[in-house]
Amino acid sequence: MSYGIFGAPVKHKVFVSYHHHADQAYYNAFSSAFHDTYDVIYDNSLERSIDSDDVNYVMRRIRENHITGTSCTIVLVGAESPKRKYIDWEISATLEKGHALIGVRLPTARLTPDNQYVLVPDRLLDNINSGFASWLTWEQITASTAQLGQYIAEAKNRSVSLINNTRARRVRNG
What we know:
Elements: E1 2-3, E2 9-10, E3 12-17, H1 20-34, E4 38-42, H2 46-49, H3 55-67, E5 72-77, H4 85-97, E6 100-105, H5 122-130, E7 134-137, H6 138-141, H7 145-156
Parallel strand pairs: 3-4, 3-5, 5-6, 6-7
Antiparallel strand pairs: 1-2
Helix pairs in contact: 3-4
């Protein structure tokens, strides 16, 4: 934990990206468990809060209103996450800012048809494969405040040269 000039703990801001309809309970549990240590913020249901079809405008709003001021984005990956355009856009905005990125496999995450791999949002997978993003389980990320802090510190220390943000943005939900 970091401390401010008067010795009070500084709450690091963490942006949490997730599918609201399917994974709200996991966000609530995460936020409740870590609210004393981290300033946990999320996308406030972008579909309702940003009333525009202009992708560039929406991306600017994501960067300015949600990603700016944070240092890490945690993506809660459930069954529908790989299909959601706003999750893709939030990951893209995070990478544009050079912020840390952590993917978290929820118990609801789906496996490939051969049951070999978890289905992960493509842009997140690109960055797991490049070595930029961390890939953890729900159990790992919620084990303790200190452990989460260590995961965030490790993610923040990764070189931005590992970022892969070349994929075209998802234009619709799957």
